[in-house]
Amino acid sequence: MRFARLTVVGLALVMAASGCTSEPSLKEAAAELQKDMQRLETDGLFKNPLMKLRILQRPDKDIRCDKDKFRRVLRATADDERVNEPLNSHLGRAQALMENVLTQRFGYKLEYDFSQADTDEGRFIYATKKDLGITMTVYVAPEAPTWRLNAMTPCLPR
Predict the structure, then answer these.
(1) For tag attachment on the chain, is the N or C end more exposed, with fewer CB atoms within 10 Å?
(2) Cα torsion through 46, 49, 54, 60, rounded to 10
(3) Upper half-sphere CA count for residue 2 (Cβ side, 13 Å)
(4) pLDDT one-digit tens code per residue, 75-97
(5) In whole angstroms, what is the distance from residue 52 CA to residue 127 CA?
(6) DSSP track, 92-138
(7) What CA–CA distance (Å, rounded) separates 59 from 31?
Protein backbone atom coordinates (compact mmCIF):
# COMPACT_ATOMS: atom_id res chain seq x y z
CA MET A 1 0.00 0.00 0.00
CA ARG A 2 2.78 2.39 0.93
CA PHE A 3 4.64 1.57 -2.31
CA ALA A 4 1.51 2.34 -4.34
CA ARG A 5 1.11 5.76 -2.69
CA LEU A 6 4.76 6.61 -3.24
CA THR A 7 4.49 5.53 -6.88
CA VAL A 8 1.40 7.71 -7.43
CA VAL A 9 3.04 10.69 -5.72
CA GLY A 10 6.23 10.16 -7.73
CA LEU A 11 4.32 10.00 -11.02
CA ALA A 12 2.37 13.13 -10.12
CA LEU A 13 5.61 15.00 -9.40
CA VAL A 14 7.16 13.86 -12.68
CA MET A 15 4.08 14.89 -14.65
CA ALA A 16 3.93 18.26 -12.92
CA ALA A 17 7.61 18.90 -13.49
CA SER A 18 7.42 17.97 -17.15
CA GLY A 19 4.38 20.22 -17.63
CA CYS A 20 6.16 23.18 -16.06
CA THR A 21 9.17 22.92 -18.30
CA SER A 22 7.38 22.33 -21.59
CA GLU A 23 7.39 25.25 -23.96
CA PRO A 24 4.47 26.30 -26.10
CA SER A 25 4.32 25.25 -29.71
CA LEU A 26 5.07 27.74 -32.46
CA LYS A 27 1.52 27.18 -33.69
CA GLU A 28 0.03 28.24 -30.32
CA ALA A 29 2.28 31.27 -29.91
CA ALA A 30 1.77 32.35 -33.52
CA ALA A 31 -2.02 32.05 -33.16
CA GLU A 32 -1.92 34.30 -30.08
CA LEU A 33 0.25 36.86 -31.87
CA GLN A 34 -2.22 36.82 -34.78
CA LYS A 35 -5.00 37.52 -32.25
CA ASP A 36 -2.98 40.42 -30.87
CA MET A 37 -2.74 41.88 -34.36
CA GLN A 38 -6.50 41.50 -34.82
CA ARG A 39 -7.10 43.10 -31.41
CA LEU A 40 -4.89 46.00 -32.45
CA GLU A 41 -6.79 46.50 -35.69
CA THR A 42 -10.23 46.27 -34.06
CA ASP A 43 -9.54 48.05 -30.76
CA GLY A 44 -11.64 51.20 -30.41
CA LEU A 45 -8.60 53.37 -29.77
CA PHE A 46 -6.63 52.24 -32.81
CA LYS A 47 -9.59 52.05 -35.19
CA ASN A 48 -9.73 55.84 -35.01
CA PRO A 49 -8.14 57.10 -38.27
CA LEU A 50 -6.41 59.89 -36.33
CA MET A 51 -4.24 57.23 -34.64
CA LYS A 52 -2.74 56.33 -38.03
CA LEU A 53 -2.25 52.65 -37.16
CA ARG A 54 0.15 50.96 -39.58
CA ILE A 55 0.93 47.26 -39.48
CA LEU A 56 4.52 47.09 -40.73
CA GLN A 57 5.01 43.35 -40.34
CA ARG A 58 2.24 40.82 -39.93
CA PRO A 59 2.95 37.69 -37.86
CA ASP A 60 2.07 35.33 -40.70
CA LYS A 61 5.52 34.09 -41.74
CA ASP A 62 7.95 31.87 -39.88
CA ILE A 63 11.33 33.54 -39.43
CA ARG A 64 14.28 31.24 -38.84
CA CYS A 65 16.06 32.12 -35.61
CA ASP A 66 18.05 28.97 -34.87
CA LYS A 67 18.62 25.59 -36.42
CA ASP A 68 15.14 24.07 -36.91
CA LYS A 69 13.54 26.85 -34.83
CA PHE A 70 11.38 29.76 -35.89
CA ARG A 71 9.54 32.78 -34.51
CA ARG A 72 6.80 35.13 -35.59
CA VAL A 73 7.06 38.92 -35.41
CA LEU A 74 4.49 41.71 -35.32
CA ARG A 75 5.60 45.29 -35.94
CA ALA A 76 3.28 48.28 -35.96
CA THR A 77 3.16 52.02 -35.39
CA ALA A 78 0.41 54.36 -34.25
CA ASP A 79 0.30 58.05 -33.50
CA ASP A 80 -1.25 60.10 -30.72
CA GLU A 81 -0.78 63.66 -31.92
CA ARG A 82 0.60 66.06 -29.35
CA VAL A 83 -1.61 69.14 -29.10
CA ASN A 84 -0.76 72.06 -26.81
CA GLU A 85 0.72 70.05 -23.96
CA PRO A 86 4.23 69.80 -22.55
CA LEU A 87 6.32 66.96 -23.98
CA ASN A 88 6.65 65.22 -20.60
CA SER A 89 2.86 65.24 -20.16
CA HIS A 90 2.31 63.90 -23.67
CA LEU A 91 4.81 61.05 -23.16
CA GLY A 92 3.38 60.20 -19.75
CA ARG A 93 -0.18 60.12 -21.08
CA ALA A 94 0.81 58.07 -24.14
CA GLN A 95 2.78 55.63 -21.98
CA ALA A 96 -0.09 55.18 -19.50
CA LEU A 97 -2.59 54.73 -22.32
CA MET A 98 -0.50 52.02 -24.01
CA GLU A 99 0.22 50.25 -20.71
CA ASN A 100 -3.53 50.15 -20.03
CA VAL A 101 -4.28 48.75 -23.50
CA LEU A 102 -1.60 46.06 -23.19
CA THR A 103 -2.70 44.89 -19.75
CA GLN A 104 -6.47 45.38 -19.83
CA ARG A 105 -7.31 44.51 -23.43
CA PHE A 106 -4.45 42.32 -24.63
CA GLY A 107 -3.59 40.39 -21.45
CA TYR A 108 0.11 41.27 -21.16
CA LYS A 109 2.00 41.61 -17.88
CA LEU A 110 4.19 44.71 -17.62
CA GLU A 111 7.84 44.68 -16.61
CA TYR A 112 8.44 48.09 -15.07
CA ASP A 113 11.60 50.09 -15.68
CA PHE A 114 11.52 53.02 -13.27
CA SER A 115 14.84 54.40 -14.52
CA GLN A 116 13.20 55.99 -17.53
CA ALA A 117 10.36 57.77 -15.74
CA ASP A 118 9.90 61.39 -16.81
CA THR A 119 12.49 61.29 -19.59
CA ASP A 120 11.86 63.50 -22.61
CA GLU A 121 13.92 61.31 -24.97
CA GLY A 122 11.22 58.64 -25.13
CA ARG A 123 10.23 55.66 -23.03
CA PHE A 124 10.13 51.91 -23.41
CA ILE A 125 7.33 49.62 -22.30
CA TYR A 126 8.21 45.96 -21.81
CA ALA A 127 5.41 43.41 -21.56
CA THR A 128 5.09 39.63 -21.78
CA LYS A 129 2.63 36.80 -22.05
CA LYS A 130 4.74 34.39 -20.04
CA ASP A 131 2.66 31.28 -20.71
CA LEU A 132 3.37 31.60 -24.45
CA GLY A 133 6.69 33.44 -24.19
CA ILE A 134 5.49 36.36 -26.32
CA THR A 135 7.31 39.61 -25.64
CA MET A 136 6.12 43.09 -26.56
CA THR A 137 8.32 46.17 -26.61
CA VAL A 138 6.75 49.55 -27.25
CA TYR A 139 8.83 52.65 -27.76
CA VAL A 140 6.90 55.79 -26.82
CA ALA A 141 8.55 58.46 -28.95
CA PRO A 142 8.59 62.24 -28.55
CA GLU A 143 7.98 62.57 -32.30
CA ALA A 144 5.47 60.91 -34.63
CA PRO A 145 4.63 58.08 -34.69
CA THR A 146 4.11 58.05 -30.94
CA TRP A 147 4.05 54.28 -30.49
CA ARG A 148 6.36 51.78 -32.16
CA LEU A 149 5.33 48.24 -31.27
CA ASN A 150 7.46 45.14 -31.69
CA ALA A 151 6.07 41.80 -30.53
CA MET A 152 7.56 38.37 -31.08
CA THR A 153 7.20 34.77 -30.12
CA PRO A 154 10.14 32.91 -28.64
CA CYS A 155 12.36 30.87 -30.94
CA LEU A 156 10.45 27.55 -31.14
CA PRO A 157 10.48 24.36 -33.18
CA ARG A 158 7.66 23.98 -35.72
Answers:
(1) N
(2) 60
(3) 0
(4) 999 999 988 999 999 999 999 99
(5) 22
(6) HHHHHHHHHIIIIIS--EEE--GGGTT-SS-EEEEEEETTTTEEEEE
(7) 9
